[in-house]
Amino acid sequence: MILGGIYFGACFLVLGAASYYLIADYGLQPLETINKYLIYYFFFDLAIRFFLQKTPVMNIKPLLYINIKRKSIVNFALGKTMLSFFNVIHIFFFIPFSIVLLREGFDVAGVLCWFTAMFAIIFFTNFLNILIDKKEVVFYAVAAIFVTLGGLQYFNLFDITQYTGAFFQMIFQTKWMALLPVLLFCALYIVTFRFFRKNLYLDEGLSVKQTIAKTEDLTWLNQFGTLGTFLKNDIKLLKRNKRSRTTVFMSVLFIFYGLLFFTNSIEAYQNPVMQVFAGVFVSGGFLFTFGQFVPSWDSSYYPLLMSQNIQYKEYLNSKWWLMVIATVVSTILASFYLYFGWEIYLLIVVGAIYNIGVNAHLVLLGGAYVKTPIDLSSSKGAFGNKQAFNVKTMLISIPKLVVPMLLYGLGKFFFGFEIGLLLVAVAGIIGFAFRNKMFRIIENVYKKEKYKTIAAYNQKD
């Protein structure tokens, strides 16, 4: 972890010191160019924070037993987040870049105001990320803004950089404009402070939120026996918990991922082999976002589950069927790709067949090696934990995307489009035909990793 921090710090340091001269070599105005694309820098920063940054604002239970004012506790917790690596890392870019600006004769007051504004925005994203994690309405609002602005930019309907670039440039030229990001940061700090101060109770903010119970028997699933029981639990999990609902939302976004490939607007994606990659992704959003964290979804009661008279095969079979159903539904929802032609939609259908026959088994197999418990009350998942990634899971991930691309590429290159599709589809059908054999292999792996998994789930961060 320390080596990783040093590496990224060095990268940002070099980028901050060299970017001015690299941009100038292309005949562009360095500061204006940086300002134009800063909005993407901050958007990317927020996205990285969402998946990787842990927000330690709730690790304060011991303080509630001490004679300390709630105001002080909240300020301490929020102040602690400002010292996060995700804030400090930006120093290594903006300080060297600002020093270069001063050496090149830029106005000192303008540079200082610009630097102050940049860090006000960085701290703003820090607290925005905290609210995204704790309040669903903020998450969906920010996601909607991201998708809307991204879509408008993609289809050349609205270029946000024209306005944000001018704004950041005005901060340098008109010094008082730096107050706007500072005031925005202060306002969000106050909102975040009030939110946590209001919920700073053992029976409210720090405990599982209690809601009015709703009866969801889903009795029609009883006809499927044990499989139906597991499916009912998974459906309830998807409906009731913040993290699982986020997964469903992300899997819907995967359906539209193919637009980047099939509209021919990005030259690198016009390669036919990349289009089958898109076909796998479009139909496999839920499979990838949900399946790779089986059994982590059940981490809170996994030890109890394993103490019952339950066969691993029954447990895994229910997860497999859930992913198959989601893949079929995603493929049907993706039927609007018929607008681009039958060939495009066939790529998606073939990708779905491969997902059902091969990838559904691979994600279950990889899940056996993921020892990361998931906090269902948080919109973040296991992405930020290094235990979620290891050599075994990486090796298992290769066939998910590389193999269908190779099969399609070889078939199309030597025989044509139809044979390429056929090879990918046949691979999926073969995987489905050997489903029972695959389940026996996966079941044995889960049994072998059983006690390691239980021990990992019992550990506290």
Automatic annotation (TrEMBL):
Provenance organism: Flavobacterium limnosediminis JC2902
Pfam family of the protein (one): DUF5687
InterPro entries (UniProt xref): DUF5687 (IPR043742)
Transmembrane is among the record's keywords: yes
Annotated transmembrane regions: 7-28, 34-52, 73-102, 108-130, 137-156, 176-196, 246-264, 276-297, 318-338, 344-368, 389-407, 413-434
Domain of life: Bacteria
The protein, known as: Uncharacterized protein
Keywords attached to this entry: Membrane, Transmembrane, Transmembrane helix
